[in-house]
């Protein structure tokens, strides 16, 4: 009852609707608080802490009554929020990078990753599997970092994808399923005829589904080879079923046996993904040993990262079943946030007045277009584009600010002291700390008019050249510390390159006549639209020889 008494002062002067919200949140927090005092295996991130993160973010974003309510309930002061000593949220802590960057002997991210691996990604937990996972995590991560964090390697991989050819077929101007590209099949495609009033033929599509699957079709072969996608017809749909519906429920502790359709379908999708990834790594191992490969599959374009992980699996004696389970986080991590972010970037650029033309002017030197006939990309300079197009980068950073929702979580291995202005917080070993980075993004004291899309807020003059350059500033889209996203270099280049290519040759208008952006709901990293956006896509046309409009 003390929790309710401490929060009661927050309920004065509220509307009836807000009062009901407060009551519901108090009840949830009481459940969280009670769960926090139950025993929990060391190093296993508790399900109630996931709820606490979500509730805390919601309350802090409510500003007035939300902050007052939370301040009456939290255990510590300053930048620490949390209703128990077992889990504390670091909110806008100035020194958060230093805290999160401490060595694994002090704060550890592998324990959190192992929790996700077993609770969400479906790995079967045994003492032997846990020991092998902890012992080999660093070696399994190294090949991924070599491909996805290295600037030159990431650029080379994207160049090998032949983005100009793929973007030229972004839509195929057909409603007949047999002529659709893989990425169009989930987009509810409808061909729209042009007419004598200078309207170009177009295709009406669900933009979120189209763009999400398009990016996945580009990215997956760069890691696992073309044969994987061609051989496995359900791995894209299963990914989104798992990510959108099943992942969040597993994070908050919904049991796998719960009698809900969304749980049954999500579990089935996860099992199919395990099976396909297990079969893939069996073929990779056969290829590496020089044995006959199942189905005579072509393994020649499997990335060095996948080959490197396979070698570690073999050396550490992971079973094939374990390899399939271990690989799901990599497949998910490559696509689950990157592809929805590409969607949001396109939405903001096309829907915001004046921004599309400015982006097209900036990227035009790096995306060469055909000078006659149907407008197509003939060449693309990815390295120069991702290095020099600072306004496009600023657009992406502003999209991160509005659509990204990253949280860094660590396990406290030994006692630490966090200095926080006039406060000093002593945290015990065996507890958890979280940093919900997106709270900064909506703070009007940091970003003026935070609800608006204003890319210029991320452009600052370079001290040496005086030219405007895009800088993250207070944003932390990839998390913080040693466990930041391992694919961040590749992911950012991929988003910039695909967006530039699409923008260069495709026009896009809302099917309903004017842009109406849907509301956002929390996702598993990037926010999701509450509904898809129907748009009509048409190819840009030549207004005069060599010039597009």
Automatic annotation (TrEMBL):
InterPro entries tied to this protein: Cyt_P450, Cyt_P450_E_grp-IV, Cyt_P450_sf
Gene3D superfamilies to which the protein is assigned, alphabetical: Cytochrome P450
What membrane topology is annotated for this entry?
Single-pass membrane protein
UniProt cofactor(s):
heme
Tell me which domain of life the UniProt entry assigns to the organism this sequence originates from: Eukaryota
Q: Name one GO molecular function term.
A: iron ion binding
Q: Does the keyword Glycosyltransferase apply?
A: no
Classify the main location.
endoplasmic reticulum
- Record-linked Pfam families: p450 (PF00067)
Q: Which residues bind heme?
A: 485
What keywords does the record list, in alphabetical order?
Heme, Iron, Lipid biosynthesis, Lipid metabolism, Metal-binding
Subcellular location(s) per record:
Endoplasmic reticulum membrane
One GO cellular component, as annotated: endoplasmic reticulum membrane
Q: Which family does it belong to?
A: Belongs to the cytochrome P450 family.
- Give the protein name, as stated in the record: Putative cytochrome P450
State the organism of origin. Clohesyomyces aquaticus
